[in-house]
Amino acid sequence: ETVMTQSPATLSVSPGERATLSCRASQSVSSNLAWYQQKPGQAPRLLIYDASTRATGIPARFSGSGSGTEFTLTISSLQSEDFAVYYCQQYYNWPPPTFGGGTKVEIK
Amino acid sequence: EVQLVESGGALVQPGGSLRLSCAASGFTFSIYSMHWVRQAPGKGLEWISYITSTSSTIYYADSMKGRFTISRDNAKNSLYLQMNSLRAEDTAVYYCATSRDRRFESWGQGTLVTVSS
Hints:
The complex is a heterodimer of chains A (108) and B (117). Chain A is mainly beta and 108 residues long. Chain A has strands at residues 4-7, 10-13, 19-25, 33-38, 45-49, 53-54, 62-67, 70-75, 85-90, 98-99, 103-107. Chain A starts with a strand and ends with a strand. Chain B is 0% helix and 54% strand. The A-B interface holds A 32, 34, 36, 42-46, 49, 55, 87, 89, 91, 94-102 and B 35, 44-47, 50, 59-62, 95, 101-110.
């Protein structure tokens, strides 16, 4: 099973600032990496797939990069609605598809 | 617009059974593979099971193999999860999600399963 490790666990950022979230895979997942956003009491929402492609309706301030074992989600200028938990997920080595433990982006 | 509505969550005693349903609308359900994913209170996301559009291929997480059964009825636009021998650690919100290239494209709002005596 491919283990996904996200860092940091919590990221404190001021509105308007840039946030950089990391995700590391225990073995190569090529570019088969997705990012999801989850707000309290809501279901996750797909943000990025294939490591760098924004899902439909996702604002351009969200960008993804990386391949192999190292990936990054960048939020260029945090808006109030972006404070949430973010999960990465690999879909290269499966089953099972595996998620990272999440990064909580909170208001500084 | 894709809509997925889970139902069937409840309070159940350890060792009990439950059947979850996921009603799909707004898309051609019969051509989509589907997943079940769960989230324990305050925890992260855990994949449970996957089924192809024709039910020809099914996968389960090892920890749920033999206890959980995924199925679907394309005529009813519905996905199901039969859960047996439930344990306290199965307490979670259960989500259904559409699968596109093995990622989770659209999600339902979830249904809460609580296993407790």
